[in-house]
Amino acid sequence: MKYKPVKKLNELAATAICGNDISSSCLYVSALAIIYAGQYAWLALLIVAAVLFLFRKIYGEVVGALPLNGGAYNALLNTTNKSTASLAATLTLLSYMATAVISASEAMHYVHSIWHEIPVIIATIFLLGIFMGLTILGIGESSKVAIFIFITHLVSLTLLAGFCGFYLFQNGFETFFSNYDQPIEGGIKQALFFGFAAAMLGISGFESSANFVEEQDEGVFPKTLRNMWIVVSVFNPLMAFLALAIIAMPDVQNNQEALLSFMGGRVGGNWLSTLISIDAALVLSGAVLTSYVGVSGLLERMTLDRILPQFLLKKNNRGSSYRIMIMFFIMCISILMITKGELGALAGVYTISFLLVMTLFGFGNILLKLKRSKLPRPVKASPIAIILAIIAVVTAIVGNAIMNPPYLGVFLEYFLPAFLFVLIMLNRTKLLKAILGLIKYMFEPVQKSVQKINFKILRLIEEINSQEFVFFTNDDDVATLNKVMLYVSKNEHTKKAKSCISD
Asked: pLDDT (tens digit, 9 = 90+) per residue, 393-418?
């Protein structure tokens, strides 16, 4: 089959595909940061932006030296071994699955808030199916949809920020100062610690660009990192600051699931609230597309490395690995059915797996410096920056574990079976050899007994057939002798025959 030549993604297309995921974070991370950090939420989000700035060079160095799909998996594969790399791959896969299901479900919840007749679970399955079909059509077609969603989202956020600015110009900052004077439980340090841990979820999607770098045009990858960092650094702290300046703290907590939509209604009326809800549904759908594109690059790389079954590499005439898309769709649907649409548990999987992937990528950079120092790379991250970035992400993991202890248990429930499957596939030849050895061990005594019995039976048959048959005839006519031999072969147990000719 001849494949159509795949056009490489330009800066806008590549940024849009991964940017929809990370830019959608302002829809929920602003409220989360305010709940845990209170009036210092915007500061916690600025700290997150600083950490993400460190990761720009960390990702840029690794992918610049090893420009292959796979992200953290690729980094560890080239510096450690397949087992360690498979750990990163499993975490990345879980992160994408959780992102796809949560984003699709939340998008449909926003649609449901506008159109109450829509069944959320069925609509979620339908949305996941739409983006499966879109990615099967090819990354070029996917990028067109991603660009439309990304630009619409940025315009919507800019419009919301403009109306909020006009509202503050008219009404002043009384609400902000009132919120600022609220007492902080545990002090500023504790507020910033938990606020930072919660706000780190706002950079989910930053790792996606590294998973489809081979589909990007030359020099595009570092630009996607820069563009995502700018979006997160501007809109996430800004939306948290505007929310604190416009909405009283109790109202933030009561409207955390659709905080920006509530802000739009406060400063612009129902039409702006509806517009933000539509935009939320669109950009969350774009995050589903990010998951499909990212997981396609990751699983295709793993299959090429013979970790996954080779039949997944089958491509259609557009050059898409459609079997990977179908498998990912089925996995997402299974999780949606298992959780029955209650996706709070998946938040734990999403949180821990994503942050662990970021941590492993940092370690991958360190190992790359130590083991592959001669590889050329366009940028270099300083060792201090890498250590600070890893410490920051580990701090976020600890903070989330303290805030939500059940998250670790739920994460392990999903991670252990997934990693076990990957390990089985990775070591399948050894396992098959072990099974053969076990079968031989179990059945060898039986085989020896069968051989002994077989030998005794053959000896008995030989003894029976060794008895001589004597027949008498009065001539040596060939026809007569032939009749005798036929009779003996059909009716006697012998291989010996002797004739006696009588006169």
From this structure: 999 999 988 888 877 777 888 888 88
